[in-house]
Design a protein that fits this description.
Structural class: alpha/beta
Helix content: 40-55%
Radius of gyration: 16 Å
CATH topology: TIM Barrel
Number of strands: 8
Largest sheet: 8 strands, parallel
Strand order of the largest sheet: 1-2-3-4-5-6-7-8
Shape: globular
Strand content: 15-25%
CATH superfamily: Metal-dependent hydrolases
CATH class: Alpha Beta
């Protein structure tokens, strides 16, 4: 099983401890995410040390109105590392940053151009900005991974354009019926699963810090929502992740 999105550098416990617990739970690969230049360097250090970890590197939208947004050239240099599999996370967040949308758009566009230039997939954060996100992604020539899917208005563009749709622990919450319906609608060859550790712990462990081992709970919910055997869906999702990230 592959956890396609975790923030190992933001977790309380050492990455090695989390990787070992994940391995015992059946998780073979973890994509750890950089959200700023220092975070990207930390993600790379973890990926260099842990064979089960690869890295996606980006500057997230919450840093768009900070000096971090002017470090895209540094990001480009880090992307040359052989353990890097994607650019991101990047994207738009009008829920936590409605007053910085102009800066977010500029930063997102820079990273889309960068990903296209270096030939890497893009890992996209979107919250309450579905239309603008879809418009920008429509012209992107590479692989798109919609991380922690929570925007039903992005479902149709995702299906139409063949983007990968990754579901996190929030799909397991009792009131998340709309997300489970979305999970049931995504083509089997485009669905992914993630933890977004240490955030969004799935329902069986809600209230505790999340970790990659917990991806099994989200997988179970996806299988139930889709009416599929969990083991068969796990194999399909792993194949999707390997194609999406070139693993």
């Amino acid at each position: 099983m592959i956890d396609t999105h975790a923030h190992l550098d933001a977790c309380d416990e050492p990455a090695g401890t989390l990787v070992e617990r994940a391995r015992r739970a059946g998780v073979t690969t973890i994509v750890t995410i950089g959200t700023g230049i220092d975070s990207c360097r930390a993600a790379l250090a973890i990926a260099e040390k842990e064979d089960a970890v690869v890295a996606a590197l980006g500057i997230d939208p919450h840093r768009a109105a900070t000096p971090e947004a002017h470090r895209v050239d540094e990001l480009r240099a880090l992307l040359a590392h052989p353990r890097v599999v994607a650019v991101g996370e990047t994207g738009l967040d009008a829920h936590h940053g409605a007053d910085t949308m102009a800066e977010q758009l500029a930063l997102f566009e820079q990273q889309l151009a960068l990903a296209a230039d270096v030939g890497l997939p893009i890992v996209v954060h979107c919250r309450e900005a579905a239309a603008a996100t879809a418009d920008l992604l429509a012209a992107f020539p590479g692989t798109v991974i919609l991380h922690c899917f929570s925007e039903p208005d992005l479902l149709a563009p995702a299906v139409d354009n063949g983007w990968y749709v990754s579901f996190a622990g929030n799909v397991t919450y009792p009131r998340a019926g709309v997300l489970r319906d979305a999970a049931a609608s995504v083509s089997r060859d485009r669905v992914l699963v993630e933890t977004d550790s240490p955030y969004l712990s799935p329902q069986p462990v809600r209230g505790r810090r999340n970790e990659p081992a917990n991806v099994v709970h989200t997988l179970g919910t996806l299988a139930e929502a889709r009416g599929e055997d969990a083991s068969a869906l796990e194999r399909a999702i792993d194949a999707n992740a390997r194609i999406a990230f070139g693993l």
